[in-house]
TrEMBL record:
Functional summary from the UniProt entry: Catalyzes the attachment of tryptophan to tRNA(Trp).
Gene3D superfamilies with a match to the protein in the record: HUPs, Tyrosyl-Transfer RNA Synthetase
Reaction equations catalysed: tRNA(Trp) + L-tryptophan + ATP = L-tryptophyl-tRNA(Trp) + AMP + diphosphate + H(+)
Protein name, UniProt field: Tryptophan--tRNA ligase
Entry EC no(s): 6.1.1.2
InterPro entries: aa-tRNA-synth_I_CS, aa-tRNA-synth_Ic, Rossmann-like_a/b/a_fold, Trp-tRNA-ligase, Trp-tRNA-ligase_bac-type, Trp-tRNA_synthetase
UniProt keywords, alphabetically: Aminoacyl-tRNA synthetase, ATP-binding, Cytoplasm, Ligase, Nucleotide-binding, Protein biosynthesis
Amino acid sequence: MPFTNRVFSGIQPSGDLHLGNYLGAIRRFVPLQDTHECIYCVVDMHAITVWQEPEELRRATRELTAAYLAAGIDPKRAIIFNQSRVYQHAELAWVFNCVARIGWMNRMTQFKDKAGKNSENVSLGLLAYPSLMAADILLYKATHVPVGDDQKQHLELTRDIAAKFNNDYGDSIEANGLDREFFPITEPLITGPATLVKSLRDGSKKMSKSDPSDQSRISLLDDADAIAKKIKRATTDPEPLPPEIEGLKGRAEADNLVAIYAALADKTKPEVLAEFGGKGWGVFKPALADLAVSTLAPMAGEMRRLLGDPATIDSILAEGAERARPLAEETMRDVRRIVGFVG
Ligand code: ATP
Ligand code: MG
């Protein structure tokens, strides 16, 4: 491939894909295809860190692949595949489990959020999740990862793991004639303003696949009617929209709807407020609903069309894995030598 920089990113096939996944991740993946070599993974091994019904996991894997394709990721340019097909992810994750420290894992806010008070009873995989994520990225020596705000801490940990591996095994890396910076210190890629979309029911929580309430998120497969209804029912306060951005302080739900409008319209929040400042929800919500329907409903339609032909989706994943495997094996061959595995 002609690019010097390589991007890796992955999304878990678990639960309902939603507007936050689209605005915060999938949509940002598309333009990177013009400037970077891109590897976009369906991280099914991450999905089983919490219980997944096997049939549901298969469905969600195809749904996420369909979303990548419908959003404009081109499987001829980018490599699209599901993680479990390339076993080197698991192999490198094991090595990283032995490089990373338990204290590092215990500090991860996502683990604390997901485990809650139940931290003794969640899977060991949920605790080790960041090690597998580091393996995903470093297996391909990705130079850049487009990350949402909620994933920044995991990328920092990936950098820590890379640095500790390079340092702990420094002598062996050198003895094998390899570059001292064997694993790159991967950089976050910030493209445009970071939109962390919040729940439609509670502006203090992020929109999330794992939220039990379907009303909290706009799913990428929602039809026009469902999108409009969810926006109309979204929690707000009684005040009209402020004319200036300062007026959104302390109004998390209002801020969220303005941010969604801005992201979908490719505008800034002040531009949106210049248009809607002083107007009430009776004006803003229908305008937002129209905008959301016109941008998201065609994508939902394309996803449904693709999902009608699962054999084509499966063959795209299989071909992507064929392209990923030699890259992964090239790294693992060196890692086995560096660590001291015979064979
Ligand atoms: P879960 O609740 O299972 O963690 P999730 O909705 O957070 O699911 P992930 O698979 O963890 O989804 O994240 C996929 C990608 O979507 C990540 O790049 C993440 O940064 C992004 N993302 C997730 N939620 C949001 C959100 N509310 N706003 C913006 N980006 C988001
Ligand atoms: Mg998440």
